[in-house]
Design goal:
alpha+beta; seven-stranded mixed β-sheet; four-stranded antiparallel β-sheet; globular; transferase; methyltransferase; Adenine-specific DNA methylase containing a Zn-ribbon; methyltransferase activity; DUF1156
């Protein structure tokens, strides 16, 4: 057994760059991956979990307490995987780190040699018994799955019933039954598919020419309320059907007018030669434009009409089965025998007749249930669907029950499949039924009225393409028996393939539990490794209700599918969930504020400390980019009795994903390595802590930058090492005996990180700013540099999207009530992040409002240089500015940039041919005429002169700045390195720098 006090490898070193590469790569891996078993949000990459676990389990060979037997075994085994023989302890450490980096590769995850070496090394470190790895927030199961892969015992728990069922299948069912389970699932799946196809055949008819429909493309509709119109408006984001270069397809329309009737929109499928031929969409931000008269229906009227249709996902028929309103079928996607590719045709009466039969079938199902006294669950989920700001906006369009998210045909199909799973013979192994229930959930995720047609890859997206349920105007419905994406056969195959690929482990143990009341006894776990919920980041419980309502109908009475704390609750537990915050719904979660979250995390961390052995080690993962989130987590961690001994940022997230672009999400996940803080830990001296902090942060920033960690990822990754100093003490006190709170310490951490970043970016002259000495650049330059430095990304590209393109096809829909994206230029950061940097560096944010920044709804935007033209240049145009610029340094160092010159306002710079190129309307911003021009002002002016082709004026300004001093060029070079590649600002800066006289 590893002796108490012996350092683990993860506490001294870690192959950040190599593991990050493999973790990022894993996002694109599908076959055999846990993500293909069942959706779960914020699932940790297996690569990072496997690598960190090995770092936690392996002792450091350079530690004097490292067992000799472990070192001997490592020297024997590492040559088998090309990691050297480790003649010295230092070489052995390097060999183990290389093994960790190599084994993070997905391609080696099931390699028998690597598995044998890893398990043998773990056994050598723990010769008495396999180490027990505990994860109390197990969620998608990545951490316990990797623990089983390495030969550990594992105890996984979660409060959420859906997570628990996924965990049971992953960690108990599949390992216990082995490869035969995959074949059994394929056999039973084929039986269920045949039976379902017989029962539902009339709802999914083939075309008369033998073509097979694979998707039906629908649009919700509203009526134009113009007095002289009344036409039906199909709500369509796009008229495109397929955007593949070799065979583009789209819809176009004509308006037919008959006497005494509202005008009617008639569609046809065509092959556009260019984008211009395809009509624009009819709906944007919930405003609908009539194709017949051009009237715009405001959001409140669109909502009112859809509420009357309970969301508008179903067709409205008259008593003879003729469509009179509701959802409109735009096109049908088919596969033709002997022909490649998808084909698109207009709908026919046969298509609507199948939907009408589905509605009749659904009505009969519900009637039978009601006649039976409503015994048991309603066949169609009738549990309430809450309105949650920023997450669930569909209730404002009339979808108030979970069943409202599905069309009549989808409801009948899912009800039928849930029944077929429920009615499998009692003699059949329950493991197959549990897997089949997950198949039903996978099918539901791709078959609701919130799934969309992706016109690039020509497939249907899933319902939860992000962590929300926004309205989807035009949606796609799958033909579940076709040979295509989102079909029943493909769902069975995904689950079976996972069972085949991940069955080489012994079973783990899964139990529903509240992390704040853990069921394990004291000092049981060797490793406590978890990815806890983040402060108001993801409302897991509410999101998972989408799946929970179908699981209950496929597996009635299953012991995991209930709320153990409230038997009357028809949905997943909410009362004890720490991440179901009033941020999402103030009425439902009125008492769940930051203090509630902190206390919940404190209790969970205290329980972790209780169940961890005295010689154990822990790791906590965090990937949230709000200061409130970090403070809440760290407060709970320190109050829970832990000290941080290591901190490793691993690139685990896709910065291009929608959540990264719109919210507080990082490209890296910081893995904090922790130990239980001794009961007799000393009291720290505040002065000593502050003396140690700058070197610790500086060394860590240098190490992380060498590993490719950038921007906000670097900021938050430095918090861990800084906390190593603070958390080693029972408490920290000033010389006067006052206890220093965590918040005060974190303010110092932000200050040190900010100052260190500025010194790195702007040069050693910035060190003078610490004492207020001359030579440091002005506030606006420091703010701009810090802003752009923080926006750098670990994934390689500096900065954020200056002109963001349209979101990926499967992530396009937002809350349609929110402000339009892409309407402003510049770069944005969360206000609190900007404030944390600005305050300790003496930057007064209000004084720069509407000069270089603009704050709106908790987000600070750095103004684009083009937006400052009206501030920096006067309104009337001529060519006299060059002379003024040349004279400026000699006049006074306190002159404003282009201030009044001999009683007249300096001219606005125009083109030589007299044509204006004003990038914004001058005068939009009130700019104080008596404010001294800063270095950043003069630099932005030079960039505008470059943009406008004013070479004489630019040459004069550059010459004047060279005479003034080095600050101008120092700032220009620094910002050139910080602006994103390809951005207009970088292009202008680089071109301007080429014009500097040598």
């Amino acid at each position: 057994m590893i002796p108490k006090g012996c350092k683990r490898l993860a506490e001294v070193d870690f192959p950040i760059a190599e593991v990050s590469k493999q973790a990022a790569r894993e996002k694109s891996i599908r076959h055999g991956h846990p993500s293909t078993l069942h959706l779960w949000w914020a699932r940790r990459p297996l690569a990072s979990c496997r690598a960190v676990l090995l770092g936690l389990l392996f002792p450091d060979p350079c530690d004097p307490l490292c067992p000799g037997d472990f070192k001997a075994k490592a020297r024997e085994l590492l040559p088998k995987v090309g990691c050297g023989s480790g003649e010295s302890d230092e070489a052995l450490r390097r060999g183990l780190l290389k093994f960790i980096a190599d084994f993070a590769n997905w391609d080696l995850a099931t390699n028998q040699t690597y598995l044998e070496v890893s398990r043998a090394l773990v056994q050598a470190a723990y010769p008495e018994e396999p180490p027990l790895v505990v994860d109390p927030f197990a969620g998608g199961g990545s951490i316990p799955l990797e623990a089983l892969r390495l030969g550990c015992e594992t105890f996984a728990s979660d409060l959420n019933p859906v997570a628990c069922l996924i965990l049971k299948v992953m960690l108990e069912v599949i390992p216990r039954h082995g490869p035969k389970l995959a074949e059994e699932l394929r056999r039973v799946g084929a039986e269920i598919k045949r039976q379902a196809e017989m029962e539902l055949a009339e709802l999914y008819p083939k075309d008369p020419d033998g073509a097979t429909p694979i998707a039906y493309l629908w649009a919700r509709t509203v009526r134009c309320e113009s007095p002289n119109c009344g036409a039906e408006i199909p709500l369509m984001r796009s008229f495109w059907l397929c955007k593949k270069p070799n065979r583009k397809r789209a819809l176009r329309y004509r308006v037919e007018r008959a006497w005494g009737k509202p005008p009617e929109v008639v569609f046809e499928v065509f092959e556009p030669a260019s984008e211009r031929e395809v009509p624009p969409g009819t709906v944007s931000r919930a405003r609908a434009t009539c194709l017949c008269c051009g009237m715009v229906l405001p959001p409140e009227r669109v909502r009112a009409q859809l509420v009357a249709q309970r969301g508008g996902g179903d067709v409205v028929f008259d008593d003879k089965g003729r469509r009179i309103g509701g959802a409109r079928l735009l096109a049908v996607v088919t596969l033709k025998p002997g022909e490649t590719g998808r084909h698109y045709r207009l709908p026919t009466e046969r298509d609507y007749a199948a939907v009408y039969r589905a509605q009749e079938r659904l009505a009969k199902l519900l009637e039978e249930w009601e006649r039976g006294g409503k015994q048991g669950l309603c066949p169609v989920p009738d549990e309430p669907l809450p309105l949650m700001s920023g997450t669930f906006n569909v209730p404002i369009y009339g979808m108030n029950r979970w069943g409202d998210l599905f069309t009549a045909r989808q409801k009948v199909a899912l009800v039928t499949l849930a029944r077929l799973v429920r009615e499998r013979p009692a003699s059949e192994d329950g493991a197959v039924r549990e897997e089949m229930a997950l198949v039903v959930n996978r099918l539901a995720d791709g078959n609701s009225s919130l799934t969309r047609w992706q016109n690039g890859p020509e497939k249907i997206s899933n319902n939860y393409s992000r962590q929300a349920l926004p309205i989807v105007w035009d949606f796609a419905e799958a033909c579940i028996f076709a040979d295509a994406t989102r079909s029943l056969a493909s769902m069975f195959e995904w689950v079976a393939e996972y069972a085949r690929a991940q069955c080489g482990f012994h079973p783990g143990q899964v139990q529903p539990a509240d992390a704040a009341e853990h069921p394990l006894p004291d000092e049981t776990a060797h490793v406590w490794f978890t990815d806890p919920p983040y402060y108001f980041a993801v409302p897991y419980a509410d999101l998972s209700d989408f799946f929970f309502v179908w699981l209950k109908r496929a597996l009635p009475g299953h012991p995991l599918l209930r709320d153990p704390f409230d038997p009357q609750n028809p949905l997943t537990p909410k009362a004890r969930e720490v991440c179901e915050m009033k941020h999402w719904n103030p009425d439902r979660y009125a008492d769940k504020d930051k203090a509630f979250f902190e206390e919940g995390m404190r209790r969970a961390f205290a329980e972790g400390r209780r169940v961890l052995r005295e010689d154990g080690v822990a790791s906590v993962v965090f990937a949230h980019k709000t200061t409130e989130g970090w403070e809440a987590l760290l407060s709970g961690l320190i109050k829970g009795g832990w000290t941080i001994t290591g901190s490793w940022p691993i690139a685990t997230e896709m910065a291009s994903r929608l959540r990264a672009r719109e919210s507080a999400a990082l490209a890296t996940s910081v893995h904090l390595i922790c130990r239980p803080r001794p009961e007799d830990a000393p009291v720290g001296d505040w002065a000593d802590v502050l003396r140690e902090l700058p070197k610790r942060v500086g060394d860590w920033m240098e190490r992380l930058q060498a590993e490719g960690i950038r921007g906000a990822d670097l900021v938050f990754a430095c918090i861990g090492p800084a906390l190593e100093i603070f958390s080693r003490y029972r408490k920290v006190e000033t010389a006067e005996g006052r206890e220093v709170k965590l918040a005060a310490y974190l303010e110092k951490v932000w200050e040190v990180v900010g100052r260190t970043a500025l010194e790195n970016v702007l040069g050693t002259e910035e060190a003078k700013a610490r004492n207020g000495a001359a030579g440091a650049l002005e506030e606006d330059a420091r703010l701009t540099a810090l802003f752009l430095w923080t926006l750098q990304t670990t994934e390689g590209q500096n900065g954020g999207d200056e002109n963001p393109t349209e979101d990926d096809e499967e992530e396009t829909e937002e809350d349609e009530e929110s402000p339009s994206k892409g309407a402003t230029r510049g770069y944005s950061l969360v206000f609190d992040v900007v404030r944390r940097f600005a305050q300790p560096l003496g930057i007064d944010l209000p004084s720069w409002e509407r000069r270089i920044i603009e704050t709106n709804k908790g987000v600070v935007r750095l103004l684009a240089v083009s937006e400052r033209a009206g501030q920096l240049f006067a309104d009337d145009g001529a060519m006299a500015s060059a002379e003024w610029i040349a004279e400026a340094p000699a006049k006074t160092s306190q002159l404003t940039l282009f201030s009044e010159l001999e009683g007249e306002r300096a001219p606005k710079v125009g083109r030589r041919d007299g044509r204006r190129k004003a990038l914004m309307t001058p005068g939009d911003v009130e700019f104080p005429q008596d404010r001294a021009a800063t270095t950043l002002d003069r630099l932005h002016a030079a960039m505008l002169l470059q943009a406008w082709g004013q070479t004489s004026a630019l040459r004069a300004l550059l010459k004047a700045e060279q005479e003034r001093g080095p600050d101008f060029l120092r700032l220009a070079n620094a910002l050139s390195a910080l602006y994103p590649k390809g951005s207009e600002e970088k292009r202008l800066l680089d071109a301007m720098l080429l014009a500097v006289p040598r």
